[in-house]
Amino acid sequence: MTTFMASKETVERKWYVLDAAGVPLGRTAARAAAILRGKHKATFTPHVDTGDYVVIINAAKAVLTGKKLEKKFYRTHSGYPGGLKETSYRLLMQTRPELAMRVAVKGMLPKNTIGRVALGRLKVFAGPEHNHQAQKPVLLPQD
Description:
Strand order of the largest sheet: 5-2-1-6
Distance between the termini: 35 Å
Order of helices and strands: EHEHEEHHHEE
Number of strands: 6
Strand content: 15-25%
Radius of gyration: 17 Å
Largest sheet: 4 strands, parallel
CATH class of one domain: Alpha Beta
C-alpha cells in the first residue's frame, strides 16, 4: 500500500460559506481553520497547502459564551514603552466583528508559511452579503 502525497500543482481549491449567526465565535473559527488547512479532504498532506477558500458571513451576529464580552480583551502593542492597547470584546464585536473572527481563526492556524498563506484565503463579512458569488461558493450547514 502506498501513501498519497499531494503536491502544490495537484491541489483543487473550492469555495465555502460559513454562516456565523447565532453560533459561538470559536466554533465557527475552528471549522474555518480546518477548511483553510485542508483537513476535511482525503488528500490532506501536512507539509502541503491543500486548503480551500472560506467566506464567513454574519460575523457581527456570532456569540461569545459566558462572560467573555467583559472579561476577554483584544490586545495590541506598538513596540514602544507603554504602547499596550486593550479593547474589550464587547466593543470589538460592536465596531469590528470581522477582526474578532480573523484573530480567532489566525490563532488556530499553524504559525508558519502555510498558516500565513491560508489566512489569505479567509474572507470575513459582518453582514449577510458578500462579493464572492462569482466563485459559486457552497453554503456549509451549521453543526
